[in-house]
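for the writeup, i need someone to sanity check this before i put it in the appendix. the sequnce is what the collaborator sent (i think, or maybe the updated version? ugh). structure was predicted straight from it, no edits. if anything looks off just tell me and ill rerun, i have time this weekend
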Amino acid sequence: MQIRSLYKVRVVKVAYCNNLLTIAQLDSSRSLQDLETLEVENCKALEVLFDFECDKVTKDHAESVLGRLRSLQLKYLDKLVHIIGIVPKGIRVFENLTSIVVERCGILKYLFSPSMAYSLVALNDLEVLDCGSIEEIIGNEEEGTSEIKIAEGMKTRIVFPNLNHLLLKNLSSIQMFCSQNCELVFPLLKDLTIENCPMMTKLSPWPISAPKLDISDLLDKAGGLAEENQVCNK
């Protein structure tokens, strides 16, 4: 069957496309408005999953992109630098994303900027495995892209309201979940596994709110997290 348009496509699987540099730019991603599942693997040249860098949004109201995407799997992507390079002001992404699996993405240093993390209100499962260059899950904000204003010396608050399952495994360079000046809140997190992450001594420089997670249980599952890591059960 010949496909004339990506509209109404719900599942996309991309594999062994070794000349592919990106999956979609902003205009083309709008054609994926019904996309629910995206799996990308073994694309040796892929650098940015979604490249919005050259696009500008002039509308006064916020626009949701990839708003129906629920499941994202990225595996064996040797050149992947960013999931999304730069998110223009006025764009919201991944608002209904419930599951993310990232495995063997060799030079990826972080998954999300703080402003992207604010969009992950539906995220339930997050697994990151065998990514040797990842240093943290939430990295630095790209200059000029965030609408979040943080006063000097003041922490901002990032909440993952539905995150229940978090797996970090075989991440030789990861040091923290987030090193930024952010308070992390995990209201529903019950299942945390951190395995073979030798550089990771704590999840954040600041206390973490995870009321469903017992402190002793956290330390047992972390397998080597330093005792100074603080979790607030409130």
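Residues 1-5, 143-152, 219-224, 226-230 have pLDDT under 50 and may be disordered. The chain has one domain: 11-144+155-232.
thx in advance!!
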